[in-house]
Amino acid sequence: MATTAEELDRQALLEGIGCSRKRKEDPRFIQGKGNYVDDVKLPGMVYADMVRSPYAHARIKSINKEKALALPGVLAVLTAEDLKPLKLHWMPTLAGDVQAVLADEKVHFQYQEVAVVVATDRYIAADATELVEVEYEALPALVDPHKALDADAPILREDVKEKDNVGQGPRKHPNHIFSWEVGDRDTTQSALDTAEVVVKQDMLYPRVHPSPLETCGCVASFDKVKGQLTVYITSQAPHIVRTVVSILSGVAESKIRIISPDIGGGFGNKVGVYPGYVTAIVASIVLGTPVKWIEDRIENISTTAWARDYHMTGELAADISGRIKGLRVNVLADHGAFNSHAQPTKWPAGLFSICTGSYDIPTAHVKVDGVYTNKSPGGVAYRCSFRVTEAVYLIERMMDILAQKLNIDKAEIRRRNFIKADAFPYKTALGWEVDSGNYQAALAKVLDAVHYDDLRKEQAEKRSRGELMGIGLVTFTEIVGAGPSKACDVLGVGMFESAEIRVHPTGSVIARMGTISTGQAHQTTYAQIIATELGLPSEDIQIEEGDTDTAPYGLGTYGSRSTPVGGAATAVAARKIRAKAQKIAAHLLEVSEADLDWDVDRFKVKGVPGQEKTMKEIAWAAYNNVPDGMEMGLEAVDYYDPPNFTYPFGAYLCVVDIDKLTGETKVRRFYALDDCGTRINPMIIEGQIHGGLTEGFAVAMGQEMPYDAEGNLLGNTFMDYFIPTFVETPHWETDYTVTPSPHHPLGAKGVAESPHVGSIPCFTSAIVDAFAHLGVTHMDMPHSAYRVWQKIHELGLDKQA
Amino acid sequence: MIPGEFEYHAPATVDDAIQLLAQHPDDGKIIAGGHSLLPMMKLRFAEPAHLINIFEIPELKGITEEGSMLRIGAMTTESELIRSALINQKCPLIVEAAKMIADPQVRNRGTIGGDIAHGDPGNDHPAVMLALDADIVVKGPQGERTIAAKDFFLGTYVTALEPNEIITAIRVPASTPGTGYGFNKLKRKTGDFATAGATVVLHLKGNTCDEIRIALTNVGPTAFRAEAPEALLQGREIDDALIEQAAIKVMESCAPAEDLRGDAEYKCHMAAEMARRSIRDALARAKGN
Ligand SMILES: Cc1cc2nc3c(=O)[nH]c(=O)nc-3n(C[C@H](O)[C@H](O)[C@H](O)COP(=O)(O)OP(=O)(O)OC[C@H]3O[C@@H](n4cnc5c(N)ncnc54)[C@H](O)[C@@H]3O)c2cc1C
To answer: Which of A80, A196, A310, B37 is at 20 to 30 A from A229, Cα to Cα?
Structure first.
């Protein structure tokens, strides 16, 4: 800990942990100098485009390629028939199912990939897709997941009809994917049976799409002479992509190079492997030229991974003072046509069982059933850690509903049930060990800041005048940083993270990680961690990610895992270097290691002022003057397998005013307090929180993927799909407390997803609160003006005097 | 999102453009700002073989005062309308409407002529033209003619424009004392078309409304005048009770199509609410004018 002014000056020069260092990425992005996949142009590159199904469910009777092949410039038209000999017409999903690369005999969702056209020119490729003649026989579409398991439901997946297991346990119907249960069924049942009060609520977390600014795409380039495959790809997990591509293609992993260059946002949408990637790779191998495939916005929204679509029923048992006795949750999960959700392989419902939240709940039981429908496949974590958003939504809604039932204030009901600050680490009824928290303090700080009592008074006055004002409150706990390899793997690969750090003789550093920034500013923050750990200025620390030829193997960036796992690997690797540096310093100063103190950027001999070696001096010595028997150089690698997840938390409060005549909601105030443990770069944290809150606002207020009865996806352009601009984005007020993680080397927890996870139920809480005095307990999202007005109209609140 | 193949023409004069249209009667298409046409071409809903760009033609630009009227060149962009001192002073209704159209990128290219020519019931200028009782000036091989706005909009994407004609200008009356306007548009977000919109222009003589036009956006196959509520308010001293009666008549005059913005019931109610607001705004402005 630096204390003197001189030490503080030296520390400031490092721009290490805790400093709001400006983002190193920004100058290139602001100047349009980023390098995205679609910027990649290779000599001889040709273009792929997809022929897609207009039907949600149909049998393919024939495909005629002749006219398309006759168009000058068309090089190939590939269908499932062509991929069959290579066994590439289907591919395994991360969830143990298979997904059609190109439709094999049947299509299962609208816009499904049916054929791929490759041409010398992007325009010719598009023209040729219109010339591929596909004859379909339409089949009845299954859109409503509640009907999926009916005896007379159309059977969707004929390919797995006979299988009693599609990767995630026994199933009971051809449209059933899995049943997953956790907790104690009997004690939960008896808690509900004997409780003084029980509340029960059905709620739908609608299907939404992460919609990153950059759509998905790749440039695949196979060098026939060297037998090497290079793929530039929009991936949040390039190393896993390499493994999957190797398994699928038979090309040795060492001959495959996956490069994620600059990525224009991911939010979970870029974790999976898509048919477009596979077909571009196959086309490149077949043709021996680089092939580019970039999807457009409609394709991105209609076919690549979406999130949520959880039909949930929550039940809380409590006593009349509001103390919770038990929680039961039943979920019907609509996974679409293929079970290709992206989560740790062993967890069919991700980490949904964190749904006991911030509360001390003695017993709980959760059951999730996954079903197939004629909708696009997916179910990823959209700016959240594997179904945590759904879990937090469920418990936070239930807390409000319980409060309403008992006529207890929604802040008070939470206080009565919080896990106490001295009870950490706390083991939840569903098996998680929450590392640290102080929920009371966070809530108190927020209520104080917004003058909660005054807001309630104002609301009472407004209600008496017939005006609609709502106050939303959420006190969430997340589970992020997947994860301990004993619990988490992807296709058998443990979910560790890696860092490789090299200190050069002059004291500058290059470090490479297995994660990949999609906007989180890893170049900036990882350098800060190393700067503090090594006492070298972050300005001289170069961070690289995303190239599998140079970066160590890692599982990628999603589920808020970069800081909890990648940041830990970085700290531990740096500490290995510092340990070696200490030995070198002892050698140079001719003292024993134990006589040295670390002081910001140097080792000092205890009690002998002036006897010291800076890290820079040590770096130089590492390449010419090391102790006997020590190898030269100054570098380290760490593969960090976290002992536990981290559990960030927060308290959010939202105030809305609703226009009774149009249904429009004005978010008057949004106060977000986050606790992510140690804060590495407060400015970047604030930026991530602003972004997450804005995305949460979008989800709560407008995002949806509506399907009609025939399975047509309505609203798959940005004309309908809600991406807020700064015009509609509310003003955000942010705050924080610091409760470090006890098991993380830096005490850090991960933050960028909290605002998304926490804000969404907070908006619902506020909207419902505006109608709570009229007996309304829940309203499903999105809270668009149209839907809110329907409630207003139903209650007769829009009658003119 | 890749349009079909087309040939591009950039005529220097209106007459050249008209000639090109005549040469390609079936597959030629005028392109102005392109912000309605290009999205349709990218979706391949429209696949013209010849695109005739009139955006740069000087004769189609500019805003001038002609007696009691303002003449606005058809290729005047929304941004130019918003920045025009003359329009701000003499016809602020157009500025208010233009500001609510799309987003800055679209407004920098989209033109008032294109917005009107497109015949889209969701576009905002048609109702503004109806409420202003504007004239649409068009030119074809037979020369120039003028079509009153009330005769121009015939149906969804159907207008009184002949296929070989081009809109060259719009003529709107400059605002006079006692005149007030109201423009209210409900939209889901920036860049969205109206869920429902109502434009009102009225004139007060003393406290009596001696002239009123109420035009509605996106609640029928085309923008249209709501004549029943106009008749109700015409010649009356407008008070809250009367506005309420007019609102009900507005609702009855709507025939909106259901889409993701809402069902017919919601849109009718929203048209009524936008009309209420626009009538009130127009009254307040007329009194202050
Ligand atoms: C995201 C987005 C949001 C939008 N939101 C709105 C909105 O809220 N309100 C609104 O009013 N509009 C909206 N628009 C449409 C936009 O205002 C268009 O610019 C306008 O409708 C068309 O004008 P343009 O100059 O771009 O015409 P173009 O797109 O070039 O042409 C449109 C049609 O008119 C024909 N045409 C154009 N000019 C003439 C002419 N002088 N003579 C004869 N025919 C002609 C063309 O042949 C074509 O058929 C939106 C557009 C986008 C992309």
So the answer is: A80
User: Does the CB atom of residue B253 touch ligand 1 within 6 A?
Assistant: no
Residue to probe by mutation, ligand 1, list B77, B106, B152, B159, most atoms within 8 Å of CB: B106
- Residue A380: its pLDDT value, please? 87
Distance CA(A703)–CA(A723), nearest Å, equals 8
Which residue has the CA at smallest separation from atom 28 of ligand 1?
B34
pLDDT at site A346: 81
pLDDT digits (tens, 9 = 90+) for B216-253: 999 999 999 999 999 999 999 999 999 999 999 999 99
Amino acid present at A72: P
Name the token pair of A364. Answer: 């709980």
Q: For ligand 1, is residue B193 a contact (CB within 6 Å)?
A: yes
Assigned CATH for A395-482+644-794: 3.30.365.10
Q: Which atom of ligand 1 is nearest to the CA of B111?
A: 25
Which pLDDT does position A63 carry in this prediction? 98
Is the pLDDT assigned to residue A343 strictly greater than 90? no
Tell the residue number behind the tokens 């191998």, with chain if given.
A285
Give the pLDDT confidence of A392-422 residue by residue, as tens digits. Answer: 999 999 999 999 999 999 999 999 999 999 9
Q: Are A292 and A217 in contact (CB under 8 A)?
A: yes
Is residue B266 classed exposed, middle or buried when 0-12, 13-18 and 19+ CB atoms within 10 A define those classes? Answer: buried
Interface predicted TM-score (ipTM): 0.96
Tokens at residue B170, please?
């719009």
Give yes or no for a contact between A699 and A206, defined as CB atoms under 8 angstroms apart.
Answer: no
Does the beta carbon of B115 lie inside 6 Å of ligand 1?
yes
Average pLDDT value for residue range A636-655: 97
Averaged pLDDT, B28-47: 97
Domains of chain B: 7-53 (3.30.43.10), 64-172 (3.30.465.10), 180-286 (3.30.390.50)
List chain A domain ranges. Answer: 5-34+497-640, 37-139+215-263+271-303, 395-482+644-794
Separation CA A426–CA A354 (nearest Å): 12
- CA dihedral angle for residue A756, residue B100, residue B126, residue B106, rounded to 10 degrees: -80
Give yes or no: A383 in active site.
yes
